[in-house]
Predict the structure.
Amino acid sequence: MIKKTDVMRLCVVLVLVIGAIGLAGCSAPVPKPDTQIQLAENAINRAREVNANEYAPLELKFAEDKLKEAKEAVAKQDFEKARIKAEESAEDAKLAEAKSRSAKAKKITQDMQDDVDTLRKEVKRVQ
């Protein structure tokens, strides 16, 4: 015959086992974020190629600093922090690239407008 206390003990044991399994699942090792670091490095290089150091220096600096923090976190075996910093670095670098491309496009547009204005003045002068 099954006693009420036996059922209670079984329930307590099941709760403890399920809790232990849950904790074991939460403490799974975080892999080294090599891919995220490589993506961040590539994004920074793309930003530099479009002169982000001139057109978006602050965003580029943020990206470089966060990449440095990511590499330092890897050295300390803090892979979760490293992954987060590498991903933030990549996003900052993408922003720097976009701002740089936008600024360059605005400059080209302004240069073209200046050329058009110069041509108009020249045409008026000749007439």
